[in-house]
Write a structure and sequence with these properties.
459 residues; 41% helix; 3 domains; Endonuclease, Chain A; seven-stranded mixed beta sheet; alpha/beta
Length: 459
């Protein structure tokens, strides 16, 4: 009788999983779906609550779009990327006034300070980590200065990434008039999102006109190092133009989602004079958000499209490489058909589990003829180049968590000047990276790699 009751409970749990997945439009990769089904079937009393807490990965349901409006005879990665993003409802690429990439941590820090200091009416910052170190303290100081100057300053922190943020610093910020909110705290209404859906976007937006973004969190390792080890290799950029206004709309959606205290009304400064209109081909770029607030897996779809259309080269720099099967297959097929596929990862990252989970994918990719290089220090940059016609830079790592769960933000650059700048940055930073030599894995190691990938990067 107990066995029958347990069997009925398991069936009920699986039915709940199936109905919630269908009704919520929670499309999953087959391997992730199998992982959830096995967890619920084998450990239903743990698996079902775990699924109800962590299982949802989309806030919006997919919509049916017509065919893309772009009608171009070109069959290049650039043209197909634009058509794919347009078909998913992304704003069209537009020319920007200026785009600047930061060569190193010092340049990135100076650019961040310039954006903060340039804010006349409002300053909005979103980050995954605000550390309790020298960099974090200096950021807090600058924000307090802007607030005391009459600027409306809002700071949005991911509740998990900034778990160790100094509460004393938060009190100082609020006392100075800075509005601070936490994105998806560990204890919150489950109807407003799942705790495993983290905000990994990095944004500093001044007056909706200037944008600082990329892969850097607000901590010493991303800018100066900690005194014992050098700063991590990372890539960030500043943009002046319409991308800043689009990024501000993203920030506003996050700010509303946090459901924080009512904002105090504040007299904003007079609008700035209109800026010169850029040329048609000047710094053409496109904002590509990815995550639970997007109906489609935008960056994943973009990567698949561009990899299959690539004819000469595909270069990716990422700290963690744990791709899903479809992305790995696309990269392997590109290498097999003669595309020069280059992958640059740190020899050892700051996440041991990610290094274990990537081994199988690295072996498969190397076997297909891809060139894999291992950087000596910690590389945290996220940069992608396709055929010298498209470049991506932002916050998204090439792992399943970034691709399918986190709130992420990439920018697609289409102007040759900006693509060349990213290409030169990659060459300058990784010319000495050593070549990866694959080693066969024992049965035990292969099982360990599979378990780490399943538990840590699929669910």
């Amino acid at each position: 009788m107990l066995l029958l009751g347990h069997f009925v409970f398991v069936l009920a749990c699986l039915l709940i999983y199936a109905i919630s997945t269908h009704v919520g439009g929670q499309r999953r990769h087959p391997s992730a779906a199998i992982a959830w089904v096995l967890l619920i079937a084998l450990l239903p009393y743990i698996g079902l609550p775990f699924y109800l807490i962590f299982g949802s990965r989309k806030f919006v349901r997919p919509q049916r779009h017509g065919s893309a409006l772009t009608s171009t005879p070109e069959d290049t990665p650039r043209a197909r990327a634009i058509a794919t993003l347009e078909g998913m409802g992304m704003a069209a690429p537009e020319p920007q006034q200026t785009v600047r990439f930061h060569a190193d941590g010092a340049a990135a820090w100076n650019a961040l300070l310039a954006v903060i200091d340039s804010a006349h009416s409002q300053l909005d910052i979103c980050t995954y980590i605000l550390a309790n170190d020298e960099v974090g303290q200096r950021v807090v100081h600058q924000l307090r200065l802007r607030a005391s100057a009459g600027v409306r300053v809002r700071l949005l922190l991911d509740a998990v990434g900034s778990l160790r943020t100094s509460r004393r610093q938060i009190e100082l910020l609020r006392a100075s008039g800075v509005q601070v909110r936490w994105f998806m705290p560990l204890w919150h209404n489950p109807m407003r999102g799942r705790v495993n859906l983290r905000n990994h976007r990095k944004l500093a937006i001044a007056d909706g006109r200037r944008l600082w973004s990329g892969g850097r969190n607000l901590a010493a390792e991303y800018f100066t190092g900690d005194g014992r080890t050098p700063a991590w290799t990372d890539l960030s950029f500043t943009v002046q133009g319409t991308l800043a206004k689009q990024a501000l709309r993203l920030f506003e959606s996050h700010w509303r989602h946090t459901n924080g205290p009512q904002e105090n009304s504040r007299q904003t400064a007079a609008p700035e004079p209109a800026e010169p209109v850029p040329g048609v081909d000047q710094h053409v770029a496109q904002l590509v958000p990815s995550g639970p607030d997007q109906a489609e897996d935008t960056v994943h779809a973009l990567l698949l499209t561009t990899i299959y259309r690539a004819s000469r080269r595909f270069v990716a720099v990422t700290p963690y490489f744990v791709p899903d099967d479809s992305l790995l297959t696309a990269l392997r097929l590109a290498a097999l058909r003669g595309v020069r596929v280059e992958l640059i990862v740190p020899a050892r990252s700051n996440h041991r589990l990610a290094d274990i989970a990537r081994r199988r994918a690295l072996r498969d990719l190397a076997a297909a003829g891809a060139q894999i290089r291992l950087a000596a220090g910690m590389t945290h940059a996220k940069a992608i180049m396709v055929d010298d016609t498209l470049a991506l830079c932002g916050s998204l790592n090439l792992d399943a968590r970034s691709l399918f769960l986190n709130f992420e933000l990439m920018v697609a650059f289409y102007a040759s000047e900006d693509i060349t700048a990213i290409d030169h940055w990659i060459g300058a930073n990784f010319h000495a990276a050593r070549r990866y030599v694959p080693r066969s894995a024992s049965l035990g190691r292969d099982i360990l790699e599979g378990l780490v990938r399943w538990l840590g990067f699929q669910i």
